[in-house]
């Protein structure tokens, strides 16, 4: 259980590093638009898979997290309430919801694998970007042993990093309330999602209106999808674009700040 829970966090750490690296080096620009779009689809699938997987342990925080997040579908005009009832399998989060989410959590990783293979196939068409952002056929080196050894060192280092959490601090990335069985009667004083949802959760709860919160989240993913279709730049890497580099670090600081805000209790301004 600890390997599964912390493994999800490690997976999301790697994906966030991959995402921010692509923003820094602008590897999403032409001709890799399709690679980027598939990457955003994979990211969305991962978010859905992680949320659905948060529910089956049937603990207090996961129960109330499922209640809050699935209720967001009611913001959809006309059919919203019907969708929520369909997701719940009734009129509240119960055993039917648990069965649905368990089945989906088993299914979605297969979709993730398929989308990842498409992502690799699309990347293979034009090859990877490089830190300089300059396309060159002259300076290529063999994948084995150079990149193989580099990646192997990275794998071993990250395995040590993740094992520290699994063996010495298995609960540090979770929430204490998830050691309590799910109980629909008492509401937790502070509903907190997993750490990788905190920036989005901060945006969602900052707007009192449910529809407004959902509408505020949409541009986060739409902007990631739209980036490759802006004007293609001749110099990609932020190493040679100081203004772009400054904006990148501001974006990273903003995401960290939103994450901190998301884990704080709600208070009146």
UniProtKB/TrEMBL annotation:
Domain (Cytochrome b/b6 N-terminal region profile) ranges: 1-132
Regions that span the bilayer: 38-56, 63-89, 101-123, 144-169, 214-234, 246-267
Q: What cofactor(s) does the depicted protein rely on? A: heme b
Query: Which Pfam families would you find in this protein's record?
Result: Cytochrom_B_C, Cytochrome_B
Could you tell me the keywords of this UniProt record? Electron transport, Heme, Iron, Membrane, Metal-binding, Mitochondrion, Mitochondrion inner membrane, Respiratory chain, Transmembrane, Transmembrane helix, Transport
Q: What's the protein's topology in the membrane?
A: Multi-pass membrane protein
Q: Which GO terms describe its cellular component?
A: mitochondrial inner membrane
Q: How is the cofactor bound?
A: Binds 2 heme groups non-covalently.
Q: Which GO terms describe its biological process?
A: mitochondrial electron transport, ubiquinol to cytochrome c
Which molecular-function annotations from GO does this UniProt entry contain?
metal ion binding; oxidoreductase activity; quinol-cytochrome-c reductase activity
User: Where in this chain does the record put each Cytochrome b/b6 C-terminal region profile domain?
Assistant: 133-269
Say which family it is in: Belongs to the cytochrome b family.
Q: What is this protein called?
A: Cytochrome b
């Amino acid at each position: 259980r600890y390997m599964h829970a912390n493994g999800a966090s490690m997976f999301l750490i790697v994906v966030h590093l991959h995402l921010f690296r692509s923003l820094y080096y602008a590897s999403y620009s032409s001709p890799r638009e399709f690679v980027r779009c598939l990457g955003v689809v994979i990211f969305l699938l991962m978010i859905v898979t992680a949320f659905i997987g948060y529910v089956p342990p049937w603990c207090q925080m996961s129960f109330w997290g499922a209640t809050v997040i699935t209720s967001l579908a009611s913001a959809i005009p006309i059919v919203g309430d019907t969708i929520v009832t369909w997701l719940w399998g009734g009129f509240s989060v119960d055993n039917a919801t648990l069965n649905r989410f368990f089945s989906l959590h088993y299914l979605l990783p297969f979709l993730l694998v398929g989308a990842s293979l498409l992502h690799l196939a699309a990347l293979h068409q034009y090859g990877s970007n490089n830190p300089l952002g300059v396309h060159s056929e002259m300076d290529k080196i063999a994948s084995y042993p150079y990149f193989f050894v580099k990646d192997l060192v990275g794998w071993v280092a990250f395995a040590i990093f993740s094992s520290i959490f699994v063996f010495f601090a298995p609960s540090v990335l979770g929430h204490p309330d998830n050691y309590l069985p799910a109980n629909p009667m008492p509401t937790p004083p502070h509903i907190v999602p997993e750490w990788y949802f905190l920036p989005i959760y901060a945006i969602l709860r900052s707007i009192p209106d449910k529809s407004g919160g959902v509408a505020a989240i949409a541009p986060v993913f739409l902007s990631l999808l739209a980036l490759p279709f802006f004007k293609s730049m001749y110099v990609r890497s932020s190493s040679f674009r100081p203004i772009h580099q400054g904006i990148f670090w501001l974006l990273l600081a903003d995401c960290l700040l939103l994450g901190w805000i998301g884990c704080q209790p709600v208070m009146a301004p």
